[in-house]
Write a structure and sequence with these properties.
globular, Metallo-beta-lactamase, Chain A, binds zinc ion, 5-stranded mixed beta sheet, alpha+beta, 14 strands, 13 helices, 3 domains, about 425 residues
């Protein structure tokens, strides 16, 4: 019998932790007839000699083991594999899909965890030491208004969406631009940095690049950029002072300590301050902003820009050595406090939490910056009607400017 049948073995596939063996017969019809007549063993089944398609799992053998009849001249391998697939695929496909789903789920979980750790997790900070509050006398200045000029945004559909740009203060004695957002030449300005620095700038500040240059947006709300009296950056980082590159020359209000910081080559090497922007600033020897020892709210020093109490600047040192906050008082009831990057967003002063991990590196003096968060939280609790606006906290802008970007608010009405 062994001589009568030539066996041909081929390992075809590995599945379900078992080796699937395809066994081909070279069957001699006469010999098979003889064997059949002699009586096959109970566990063996032989095919009819003429039926090439007859393929079956052999009872008692492994379910994947197929005996293939190669009796005729048709292409047995092809037929055999397609026959084999009838057995294999229903088992293999769900398993493969399960594995893919598991890999995908793992990737999603890892990405979500990374996002949470980098962007959303914040460290709770201690409360500020008790501090006296000096309640300012605020009069309503006729003709004053404040406008939201948004040059860049991300995730704007979500509550955690970011923004960048300017807040324009319209004042009878000349208009003031608070912050200027990114330069419209952002990509060119960061091109020369080493890859790691370039990537950091591109993926953080670069997400808030101007969709339209600042002067164009100012004109859209009826503001002539050439007639601005001053610009006051909350600090000199590129996403706050870059817009100066697009504006006609104008006086930029900065303290000596912030100018020293901006001119420091090691600071510029880290990419947060761009040398070309510094050319738009006054020289270190001629600072344009100085605080007086006049307490204001919970701050010990202040600078009253128009000398009428409408716009009052206070130091918020920490994020940078000369970071400032700017109070804009439209009326005793309608007031905003622009705080630059002292906090990432409203969570900073509402929940008294630090910066997200991805932005920690942007603080020049982390511990000092954390103390400012405590101060802002204290102020928020003492003056609940005051709208504290973090430079990038889009949801805070939306509350103060119900008309959205490119809209203004005055002490009389919103337009
Ligand atoms: Zn910023």
């Amino acid at each position: 019998m062994a001589a009568a049948i030539g066996f041909e073995f081929a390992v075809v596939a590995i599945a379900k932790q078992s080796v699937v063996v395809e066994v081909g017969f070279e069957v001699d019809a006469a010999a098979v007839a003889a064997v059949a007549a002699g009586g096959a063993a109970a566990r063996n089944v032989f095919f009819a000699a003429e039926g090439h398609a007859a393929v079956a799992a052999v009872a008692g053998l492994h379910e994947y083991l197929g005996f293939i009849n190669k009796h005729d001249n048709k292409t047995p391998e092809k037929d055999n594999i397609s026959e084999l697939r009838r057995y294999e695929l229903p088992e293999r496909r769900p398993r493969l899909l399960k594995r893919l789903a598991l890999i995908l789920l793992t990737l999603v979980i890892v990405a979500a965890a990374a996002l949470y750790v980098l962007y959303f997790r914040r460290t709770p900070l201690p409360a500020a030491a008790p501090h006296a509050r000096v309640v300012p006398a605020i009069s309503t200045i006729p003709g004053i208004a404040v406008c939201w000029v948004e040059t860049g945004k991300t995730f704007s559909r979500f509550s955690f969406g970011s923004t960048a740009g300017s807040v324009l203060v319209r004042h009878p004695a000349g208009d003031l631009l608070i912050d200027t957002g990114n330069s419209s030449h952002f990509d060119d300005e960061i091109r020369g940095f080493p890859f790691g620095t370039w990537l950091k700038l591109k993926s953080l500040a670069g997400e808030l690049k101007p969709e339209s240059p600042l002067p164009q947006l100012l004109r859209q709300i009826g503001e002539d950029p050439a007639k601005l009296r001053w610009a006051i950056p909350s600090h000199v980082h590129l996403d706050h002072s870059g817009g100066l590159m697009d504006l006609p020359p104008l006086p930029v209000l900065l303290t000596r300590e912030e100018l020293q910081f901006a001119n420091d080559p090691s600071v510029q090497a880290r990419g947060y301050v761009i040398a070309a922007h510094v050319q738009k600033f006054p020289s270190v020897a001629a600072p344009t902003l100085q605080f007086n020892p006049v307490p204001y709210e919970t701050f010990d020093e202040s600078a009253d820009l128009y000398k009428d109490g409408s716009v009052v600047v206070v130091p918020l040192r920490g994020h940078t050595p000369g970071s400032v906050g700017i109070f804009v008082n439209l009326s005793p009831e309608r007031r905003m406090f622009y705080v630059g990057d002292a906090v990432d967003d409203e969570r900073g002063f509402e929940e008294r939490v630090g910066k997200s991990m991805i932005l920690l590196d942007s603080d020049n003096a982390g511990k000092v910056a954390d103390q400012i968060v405590g101060r802002l939280n204290d102020l928020h609790e003492k003056v609940p009607g005051l709208a504290i606006i973090p430079a990038h906290g889009r949801s805070a802008y939306k509350k103060f400017f119900p008309g959205g970007p490119q809209s203004c608010v005055s002490n009389q009405y919103t337009r």
